[in-house]
Specification:
The structure is a single chain. Strands 1-2-3-4 form a four-stranded antiparallel β-sheet. It has helices at about 40-50, 75-85, 90-135; strands at about 5-15, 15-25, 30-35, 60-65. With about 140 residues, it is an alpha+beta fold. Helix content is about 50%, strand content about 25%. It starts with a strand and ends with a helix.
Length: about 140
Amino acid sequence: MDKVSGRLIVFFEEPFWVGVFEHVSNGRLSVCKAIFGAEPKDYEVYRFVLKNYYRLRFGSAMVTDVKKAGCNPKRVQREVRKQVQNTGIGTKSQQALKLQQEQLKTEHKDVSRKQREAKKQRRFELKQRKKKEKHRGR
């Protein structure tokens, strides 16, 4: 049976509060970044997750190793304390976010290039039409 897990890390990244959603399924990690703005309260984060989780655009999944959860409650408590003190996100999450950012950047470049070429083509056709209209009267 496949194990699916999710995690939300909220931290302050100048000048906004940022939430990083990590989704691990079938040993593959996908990440999404959400900007909260002002410091969110616990109930605001919970409401955001309930309302917007299915609208989030997770990046392409990358392979990661899935660790077994420890059963010792003291160890779990220590790990939780360590994660709370640690500000920021893990390196795998950073790599996944960077990959997602690069993909969005290339998509945006393609779209803007196509728009620029279409605008150039419209201008050319307009010039050609005006040139024909000038010669039509003589």
